[in-house]
Amino acid sequence: xxxxxxxxxxxxxxxxxxxxxxxxxxxxxxxxxxxxxxxxxxxxxxxxxxxxxxxxxxxxxxxxxxxxxxxxxxxxxxxxxxxxxxxxxxxxxxxxxxxxxxxxxxxxxxxxxxxxxxxxxxxxxxxxxxxxxxxxxxxxxxxxxxxxxxxxxxxxxxxxxxxxxxxxxxxxxxxxxxxxxxxxxxxxxxxxxxxxxxxxxxxxxxxxxxxxxxxxxxxxxxxxxxxxxxxxxxxxxxxxxxxxxxxxxxxxxxxxxxxxxxxxxxxxxxxxxxxxxxxxxxxxxxxxxxxxxxxxxxxxxxxxxxxxxxxxxxxxxxxxxxxxxxxxxxxxxxxxxxxxxxxxxxxxxxxxxxxxxxxxxxxxxxxxxxxxxxxxxxxxxxxxxxxxxxxxxxxxxxxxxxxxxxxxxxxxxxxxxxxxxxxxxxxxxxxxxxxxxxxxxxxxxx
Length: 446
Description:
This protein is α/β, with parallel strands linked by helices. Helix content is 25%, strand content 22%. The chain has helices spanning 46-55, 88-103, 125-139, 167-182, 205-209, 226-231, 249-261, 289-300, 320-324, 328-339; strands at 14-17, 20-23, 33-35, 60-64, 76-77, 82-86, 107-114, 148-151, 192-193, 220-222, 269-271, 305-308, 348-349, 359-361, 364-366, 369-374, 378-383, 387-392, 398-404, 416-421, 427-432, 438-444.
């Protein structure tokens, strides 16, 4: 039972509700995530960063508790020489960062382990336990936290150019279970995988991507770089993850399909690393604002979530200049504003109800139209290239609205009324200008 909140950001604990999230007071945040690294920077800069996040409806910030690559040792005593003690000033900064986000009604996802610079591999099991106990004693009572055991958890023992080490998941489940026990106020906990690897086969990257062997988690965080999905000749155990991206129809169709397949684990799904918008040429850093938009919409049509990161992600001082130069925040806000208008938590992927408008890549066909629906009530269609849209619907009269996602950035999307439609032979049909990406909303008129 909730008592009336004294401030608008007090919603009570966040829990997973099927494949989505719900606060104790009944509010449902549609998660739009970004990754930052400014928790140890000038606190005077935080208010402007938070105002930007609020303006564009970004409501979840993930960050590595140790900082960026090369900073891991600084979270521990004596500059990393004493793994049994911790840098108090660093932890106080983490506390303050989480609390600043809390007061802005923004979720915080602190990652305990960041094995990228290999320093935290040095901890013994006893030191791992002490580290988790200390960290959760400090942050576990913040109602906005979503603690994460580790980034790319397979990095605990595995190397990127070798096979996966089976000890990784043994370690993750041992200390993940402890993390869950330490979440005494019921905050949701999880872990992030798979680690990038460009050599592992049988099992390979895609083997791990299609599984979720962490029963203690409340949600799943995946590394599913969309550009790599476009380059892979097959999604198979013996196919390594490609390093070079291809942003084609196959990439986004596979993204949607893989997220749908992961729904069988019945926990919320976040593609935590779909690739960063960093003007790079690799799968991990080659996103553009256009591909970011398609990434978010193909995730949403799977009933899942994803995240946006750009050059701001690794900025340890002021991330705002990088965030402001991207169009992506405008598109993310549009996505949330659309989701505000539909009961997305009651809707499920129903691609079979919309014409796919396929294109051929590598001898196979891949769809360009996607559908999330509560059949008979609400139909949400994402079309990457427009054209004629045909959707099978139940009997009734439907109101149609369309939004051109390529439109110039605006504070609010401009719906283009499509009038009222009555199905013929169980289908409604309408046309969207070709060569552009659209979202269309069909609502049955009661």
